[in-house]
Structure formats: C-alpha cells, structure tokens
Amino acid sequence: MKPIWLKIAGLHSYRELQEIDFAKLSEAGLFGIFGPTGSGKSTILDAITLALYGQVVRLGGGTHPKEVLNQLEQRVFVSFTFEIGAGDRRKRYTIEREFGLDKKGNRRQPEVRLIERGTDGVTPDKVLESKATAATQAIESLIGLTLQDFTRAVVLPQGQFSRFLTLKGSERNEMLQRMFQLHEYGEKLNERIRTRYEQNKTELHRLQLELAAIGDVGPEALEHARQTLELAEQQSKAYAAQREELSAKKREMEQVYQWQVERAAIEQQAAALQSRQAEIEQIGQKVKEIEASLQIWPLWQKYRKLSKEWDELGLALAQLRQQQQSAASEWEQADQEYQSAAATLRQQEPLLAEQKGKLLQAVEWEKELAALARDLQEAEREQAGLTGQLHLLHSQIDQLEQALVDLDKQWAELEQQVQQVVVTPEERQHLVALREVKEGWSREQQKLQELVAQKAELQKERQALTADLQQLADEVRQQATLRERTQNELAACQEKPLLSETELERLREQLMQAKQLGKEWREQVNLLNAWSKKWAELEQRWGQQERDILQLEEQQRKLTEVHQRARDAYEQVSSEWQSWQRENLARMLRKELSDGEACPVCGSTHHPLRHTELTEEAQTAERQRWEQKLAQMEEEVAQAERQLREATDSLQAAKINGAALAEQRRSQQEEKASIDERVAQIKAECAALGADWQTEDFEALLMRYKQNETAFRVKTEERARQKDMLEQLQQRLAQVREQELLRRSSQESKQALLNRLQDQLAVVDLRLAEATEQLRQAESKFTQLRGELLPEEIESRYRQLEERDRLLIQLAQQRTELEKRRKDLAQQSETEKERRTQLTIRATALQERRHERAQLQTERQRQLFAVTQGEAAASLLTQIESKLAQLQKSVQTAEQRRTQAMERRQQVHERLLKAEEACSLLNRQRMEAELVWQTGMQQAGLADDVSRLEALYQESERLEAYREQVDSYNRQQTQLQYERDRLGQLLAGRSVTEEEWQSMLLAWEQLERTYEAFKDEVAVARQTLQQISANHDKWVGLQAKIFERVDEQSRLEELKKLFEGKAFVQFIAEEKLAAIAADASYHLKRMTKNRYALEIGDEGEFVLRDEGAGGMRRPVNTLSGGETFLTSLALALALSVEIQMRGGKLEFFFLDEGFGTLDPELLETVMDALERLRMDRFTIGLISHVPEMRLRMPRRLVITPAEPLGAGSQIRLEMD
C-alpha cells in the first residue's frame, strides 16, 4: 500500500482545504512533518485513519463531528488516495468521508465514497461503495488490516507507539493471526476438522440405521427367491403354449364369423339400393336440364342488361341535347357582362391609385404624430420621477455614512470581548487529556463488569449442560436394556420351527395345478354336454335337409318343362309378328310420305297409292292386337324364367346348406374326439400329482381339492403369523437401536459442548484477570494526572471550557456579521452615489429629447393638413381602397362567369358526342345478344319459355347435390358388387354359427384369466428377487462403508485432539514472531552500536539483551523512555516490512513520537539508521518538533499553526 494524495478540511485545527502530495513527498524514501506543538502534525495521521476506517484513534475511536470538527466549521472532509498491488494487478483507490452537523447542531449522516481510479486514461472511475459500514469493510478487505492493527504496525500515533511491544501474549497472537492470515491454520482448520468429524459421525450413524432397516437379505433369502421365480416361469410357459394354440383357432373362427356378418350387411345394403333406382333415374334427367339452363342463363342475363342500358342511355341523350342549348345562351350573356366591367375599370383605376399613394403617406404621418405625443408625455413623467429620486438619494447617502461610523465603534468593543474569553492551548490540552483518561478508566470498569456477568452466564450454562448429560446417560441405559430385551424375544421367535418356503411353494403349486386341471375337466364336461345337444340338433337338421333337396330337384324339373313350353309359344308368336310387319312395310312407308317430298326408295315426288291404303284406325287396331299378344307371351316366358331361377337358387342353396351341415358333422366328430382325448390327459396329469389326486370322477377330484386347500390354508396362516411376529420384532429392534444411537449422539454433542464451555470459562478467567490489572493501571494513571482536582470537577471544568468556546464562537459569528454588515453598507453607499450621478445625466438628456420631439410634431401636423384638409387619413384611404377593390372584383367576377360558361358549354358538347357513340354501340351489342340467347333456348328445347328457364336456374344450387346422389348410387352399386364377390371367395363355403363362436369366446376367456394369473405370479416373484438382490448388494456396500467410516472416525478423533485450543496457531505465531524479533534485533543493534538485542522469552514475551551489562536480559517494562523508543522503533520497522498485504507488501511507515526522549548522540545514531533503512518502494515518515531532525530530512512538510478565530493550520512542502 502506497499513499498518493491526502485532502483535509475542517478537522481539528484545519479549516480551509489542505492537500498533501505523498507521491512527491515520498520520492526520497524518508520525510518529516514538523511544526509547533498543537499545530496539527498528528492530525495528518488522524485524517488517514479517519478516511480509511471512519475513526480517530487518539479520541478512543470517536467519529462524532463535535469531537473532531473545528469549532468554526460545520463539516469535516477527508480524502485519501492510495495504490496497492504489484505489476499488472496494481490499482489506485480513493476513499472520501464527510461528517458534519445540521442546523440544530445534531450529527448529520456521514457521506462516504470508495472509488476505484482509472489510471490508463481510458478506464473511467468507478464507485465501489457509498455506505459507511460497507466502505470500511471493503477497506479492511483491500488492506488486510483492522484499525487496531493499522495503528500498531503502520501509522503509530501519539500514545500508541509501544503498544505492540507491551501487548499480552493472547492479544499479540490475535494480531499476528490477522496480519499473517494465520486463521487459515487456526480457527478455519480446526473448524474444518470439527465439521468433518461431525459429518463422518452423522454418516456412520445413518449407515448403521440403514443397515438395520433393510432386514434379512442374506444369501439364503436370495437363493429361495431365485427358485421361486424359476418355478413360476415354467408354469407360465406351459400355459403360454396352450394359449397360443387356442389363439390360432380363435383367430380363424373369428375371421369367418366376421366375413359372414359383413356379407349379411352387404345384402341388406344392396336391397336398399335397388329400391332407389327409379328415383335416381329422375334425378339424372333433372341434372341434364339444370346443366343446360346454366349454359343459357348468362346469355339471357346479358340480353336483359344490354336492353336496360340501351333504354337508359336514350333518355340521357335527350337530356344532353337540351343542356347544350342552355349552355350556349349562358356563355353569350356572361361575355357581354365582362366587356362592360373591364371598360369601367380602365377609366377609373389611374386616378384612384394616385389618391391612394398620398393617403398612405398621410396615415404614416398620423402614426408618427401619435408616437411623438406619447413620447412627450412619457418624458414629462420621467422628468418628474427623476427629480424625486435625486432628492431621496441625497438623504439615503447621509444615513449610510452615519451607520458606518456606528459599526466601527461596535467592532472595537467586540475585539475587547474576544481577548477576554480566549482559552490557552496548554489549558485546553490538559483538560482534554484528563477527560480522555477518565473515560478510559470508566471503560475499563464497564469491561470488568461485563466479564463478571459473562462468567456467571457461562457457569449457569455449564450447570444446565451437566444436568442434561446426566438425564441422557439414564436414557441411554434404558434404551440399552430395552434393546437387549427385544433381541432376546427375537432370538426366541427365530428358534421356533417354521414351515420352509420350498415346501409351502410345493403345496401351493400342487393345489394350483389341481385347481387348473379341475377347471379344465369341468370345461371338458361342459363342452361334452354342449356337444351332445348340438349333435342331436345337427342330425335332425341333416335329415330334414336331405328331404328338402329331393323336393326341390323335382320342382326344378317341372318348372323347366313349363319354361320350355312358354318359350316355344313365344317364338311362334314372334315369327308371326315379324311376317305381319314385312307385309305392311310398304304401306307404312307410303304413310310417312308427303306431297312433293322425294321417296327414299324410288325418288319420285308423286305418290298415287298413298290414299288407297287401309284407314289408320284399322291399321292401328291390328298393330295393337299383335303387340298385346306378343307382350302377353313375353310375360309368360319371363314368369316361367323367374320361377325356374328361384327353384334353381333354392336347390343350390339347399345343396350349399347340405355341404355346410356335412362339414359341421365332421367338425363335431373331431370335437368329440378332442374332448375325450383331453379328459384322458387330465386324468393322467392328476395321477402324476400324487396318489391322493388319482380318480376317474370329477366330483371326487373336487372333494379332494377342498380338503387339501383347507389344510394348506391352515399351514399358510400359521407361517404368516410367525413371519409377521419376526418382522415386528425386527422393526422394533431397529427402532430401539435408532433411539439408542440418537441418545448416544446427543450425549456426545452435549459433552463436546460442555468441554468447549469449560475452555470458554478458562479464557474468561484470564481476561478477567487482565481486565482487573488494566483497571488498576487506568485508575493509577487517572489519579496521577488529576492531582488535587476531584473527579466530579473534571466534567464541570470541561463544560466551562466548552461554554467559553461557545461564547468565543458566538463572538466570532458576531464579528463576522459586523464585518459583513460594514462591507454591505460601504458597498451600498458607493452604489447609491453612483446611482445619483447616473440619474443626473439621465435628467439632462431627457430635457434635450423633449425639445427635439416638439419641433418634429409641428412640422408633421402642417404636412398632414395639406393632404387631408383636417379629415382622418385612414378613413379617406379606406374609401379609396374600397372603391378600387369593388371595380376589380366586378371584372374578376364577370371573367369567372364567362370562363365557367365556356367550360360548361364545352363539357356538355363532349358528353353529347360520347353518349351518341355509346348508344350506337350498345344497340348493336343488344341485337347480337338477343340472337345468341334465342338460339340457345331453341337448342335446349325450351323455345321461348323464360319462366321454365328461371325455375331450372333457381335449382342450380342443388346441382352438385343431384350429381353427388347419382355418383354415390353408382359407386355404392359397384362397391357392393365387389364386396359380395370378395367375401364369397374368402368364405369358400365355410361358416360359423353363433353358438360355436360364443363357446370359443368362453374357452378363450377362461384360458386368458389363468394365463394372466400365472404371469402376475412371475412378476411378483421377479420383483421379490430384484428387491432382495438390490438390498443384498446394498447390505454388502453398507458393511464396507461402515468399516471405512469407523476407520476415518478414529483418525479424525486424533486430529481433533491435536488441534484443540490454539496450540498449532501459537506454534506458527511464535515462529513468525521469532523471525520478526530477529529482524528487529538487527535494526536495534545498528541504532545502539550492538549494545542492545531483542529476543523472545520463555513465555513468548519480548526480552531486551543488554550486551553492555554482560548480556543481561531485561523485561521490556524495565526500560527507560529512550530504550523503549529505540526498541519499539526497531520492532515497528521489522513488523511493517514483514506485513503481507493484499496485492503486495506494505510500502510506508509513520512514526509520531519519541524523538524528544533521545540525547543528541543517540538521536544522531537513530537518524543515521533511518537513512540507511531507505529502500525501493518503502517510505518512512516521521513527525516531530525537534529542530535537528528537520535539518536532516530531504523532504519536509511544515505545519503553520491556526490563528485564533482566523485561518486554520496551513501545510507547506519543502524540498532540498
């Protein structure tokens, strides 16, 4: 840390802002601060500590403005700039603090700023802290020293120089611990060991509880779980094979059943579609008509629109022709009006313009005359005001001169009062020192009382902890007794014989197999009963089906003969009908001919035989007779065909049903064989279970199953009760163990707390003895310093001193006010005299200006009368301008009307031409549209029926719906036919009845339930095995971890014993202190010519070895003042050089006392040693009033004392 700049204002004897450039002052490595006693030398050190830590050490750490504030000031300001660090990490900081009083004399909130300075010219300054407490903490963090450490090793103010030399061992160790960061090896390392010890202990306890909680998970339990899982998996695989076989049959039957359902649904849909055929044909016809109307409708709309537009355009054309005639007449009238107005303007405009120019000049003269009249009136008023002011100023100047004489008399009287109340510096210093000593004595008394109270509180806590430990010991013994009793009960329960899990599982498996076999046997019995019923029904249906087929074959034969006869009769009638048509073909051709039309056979246009044929009525009657006969024969043939087709379909269906029945009979026979085979297998499997299960009757098997199940349930319940008892005892034992461990852990924590409390009591006893000794010393010093003065009179004397100070401040304030008043009166008198002179000059100038304005007013009045003859010029000008504007406006209005009339005539003409052309074009388009529309109507077969067209067009919105209905109908027909053919191919004659399908579903459901039950058993067995395996691995891991924790706990206990108290820190501090003592001894030998050396005593205290007395060792409290100064100086130099700070070593050292106790020869030796101590990046500053030292310093700060009630102390830099 290196000081750069210091600013002081308002602190102690300093009033105005004083600045110290430490960078220049420290260039030589050694400088001094000199001045008379009380001039403010030590205040410079106070300013540094006040800036850094917000306290002044010489005042016992005071920060109240009244304690540090100059009596004539209202604020204290200090600013200290310093650098810290090395190389690239070196930074510059500024700490600023301001204290003060408010208007009522109370303490004002201090203002603080800690700033990091930018040193490269680019980086801006940055405010780090702006609160007092935070700024102080930041400074301690940056420097690494507290205020006490700083004043013991860096800045040594008066009364603090030998503190480190005479510190007690505990206080010196604490100081060294902070200075050299020994807390890393002391408190922090000890805390880490204690924390690790408690964590390891807690973890060991947790592992023991976890081991007790997992229960029995040994190798036997693991092997039993594996066997259980293997048995369950074998049974599950057997049922899985059965399930797969039945599943294949179920899928095939389900597929056939589903195809049958789909085919029935398709037949229903086809019948529904057939019923809508006529409706769909009508909708198709309407679609064609609507499509034709959509093509014609735009043509019709276009024709209607063009006709309407043509009619409207004809009416508009007639209106435009009338508008054209009206516009021509309007333009002729407007042109005549314009010519008349223009002629009038040309005649009168020159004369009116000349009159207007003269009247404009006259208006300006009128304005000028009005302004002159106002100026004259204002000048008269101002003249009168100036005269009054001059008389008043003469009177005021006389009064001010008399007031200055009176103030001079008051000033002389005030100076006499100031001299009477001034306090001498010696008297003030004695009272302040006496009051400080008294306050120190009071603080020592208070400190002693606090230590006594602290000791009583610690004793009370020790008594309470002892009682708690006794209670915990009783609880631990109770828990141990309960644990032993629970362990005995658990051992007794475990000795009872328990049915093995293997035997129990074998019986359970035997019962399950017997139960499953019984279910299957019952199912087979049910299936056999159902088969008997279905077989009887099937035989009955088979006989009936054979009889139906014989009847249908006979019916088909008869209908075939009937159909053949009807077909022969139809062919005969048809042949006769064709013969009749050939015979009447020529007659029908002549009937179609017309007169003058060419014959398609011979080409002749003359037809003589056309009117010789039979009459039309006879021919029509003959034709109708043949057509009726032919239709009747066609109906007979169609009816015969329908009957034959129905008979054929019925026969084919009967044959298909017969084939299906035959297939069902074969399937039933296979099913019967399968049932018999499965029953035989079940009997064999029952016999394989044991002799108890061998039987030929299902009811006997059921009876034996109930007996064995009851016996198994009794054994299972008995084993479960015994197992529950074991689990409850194990849980109770785990809980008891946990409670016992908790009690023991609490007991150990309480014991550790009691041990720490004993250590604290020992420390308090030591501090109590030290406080008693310090109180005795403070009381002795206080008694010696006060002399005959009583303690209660000290405050009275100090209050009298403060009263005289307050009176002096009041007198100073009165003198300042008198001085300010005299200065204000003198300045006011000069101001008034100068104002009187200015007013006199203004009055003279004003008189001259009035005369000039009067002459100008007369001349302007004469000129104005020559133009206006006494009338108002503005009125005459308004009349001329109004007349001229009226003439111009008439011409403009007439011209605008003429232009508008011409434009309107042109616009109407253009619109007429465009309308005539549009009318011709629109008529041609209308005729073309009419021709196209009529052609479309004829092609659509609508002739001129517009209403029919509109009706069809209105239905166009439903066109898409009509189309969709037709398309959907066709798609459905196609799809249904496709599905009917596809399903017929898939079924290939196969069929499944509802009873067969339901029977299959029932069998599948029963097998599925059995299979799922065995799957659940496998899952439960696997989960049990996984849980036991996981717990077994955890058990092995916990055993290993507990062994590791126990081993580590023993090592931590050894470390804990080694680091109890501060033995390790004491060892490191003693080593560091020995190095510092050796360095200080080197400096001391140089300053005393090897007479004195500094050593460390047996109890860690400093001892001075006097070589001049034969190497005799002397305690430091036996040294004289000069010896104490030299020893403390050497120790301070060694300590300051050795202190490690954040960012680099300490770079300066201040000393503020001691040189007055040295004789001239020893002073010369000390100065030589200090000059030789100068080194790079290290500066030593000395504060003294000894003249010889001032001559030896290369850099000097000279302090000029403050003047009573005047300027404060001044600082001046001197350089050789």
TrEMBL record:
Coiled coil region boundaries: 190-293, 362-417, 441-524, 616-685, 712-835, 877-911, 952-979, 1004-1031
Residue ranges annotated for the Rad50/SbcC-type AAA domain, each copy included: 6-288
Quaternary context: Heterodimer of SbcC and SbcD.
Official protein name in the record: Nuclease SbcCD subunit C
Cross-referenced SUPFAM superfamilies: P-loop containing nucleoside triphosphate hydrolases
PANTHER family: ABC TRANSPORTER ABCH.3 (PTHR32114:SF2)
Pfam family, one: AAA_23
Family, similarity comment: Belongs to the SMC family. SbcC subfamily.
Domain of life: Bacteria
Keywords recorded for this protein, A-Z: Coiled coil, Exonuclease, Hydrolase, Nuclease
GO biological process: double-strand break repair
Gene Ontology terms, MF aspect: ATP hydrolysis activity; exonuclease activity
